[in-house]
Amino acid sequence: MKSMFLDTSGWFAAMSPREAHHNAALSAYRARIEGRARLVTTNLVVAEMEVLLMRFRGPGEGLRFMESLYQDPGHQVVFVDRDLERAAIDRWIRRFRDQRLSLADATSFEVMRQRQIHEALALDEHFEMAGYELVP
């Protein structure tokens, strides 16, 4: 089964009609859902999404998003533990220390590496820098 990682940048664009890349991101997201792709993200990305949804749509929207996400078996949330965080720091943050790479991005890259996921619903060029394919 094909997998796609969900990053905040692409996922929020897919959910937000005012975003510049909304149509392309939404189309790619829907295509993966219809194709029954395994959609993977981390709890750090979920936290970023919740903050953005609260900020732009109100506090209830963040809660609705999380409730819907955790009830959907098509979406898998990987919880970042100490070992995953350490691997992300050692493999990604140290390697790209000249870049403004967040811990959320580094753990995303490490999850993708460990699970052999090659594409991400993302608008963040750091995913390409790390060797992954951006969708859309």
How would you summarize what this structure contains?
The protein is α/β, with parallel strands linked by helices and about 140 residues long. About 60% of the residues lie in helices and about 15% in strands.
Radius of gyration: 14 Å
Order of helices and strands: EHHEHHEHHEHE
Which parts are unreliable, with pLDDT below 50 for 5 consecutive residues or more? none
Shape: globular
Strand content: 5-15%
Task: Describe the model.
- The protein is an alpha/beta fold.
- The chain is globular.
- The protein has helices spanning 8-15, 22-34, 43-57, 59-71, 82-93, 103-115, 125-129, and strands at 3-6, 38-42, 75-78, 119-121, 133-135.
- The protein starts with a strand and ends with a strand.
- The chain has one domain (3-135): Rossmann fold, CATH 3.40.50.1010.
- It has 7 helices and 5 strands; from the N terminus they run βααβααβααβαβ.
- Strands 3-2-1-4-5 form a 5-stranded parallel β-sheet.
- Helix 7 (125-129) links the parallel strand 4 (119-121) and strand 5 (133-135).
- The mean pLDDT is 96.
- The longest helix has 15 residues, at 43-57.
- Helix 5 (82-93) crosses helix 6.
- Helices cover 58% and strands 14% of the residues.
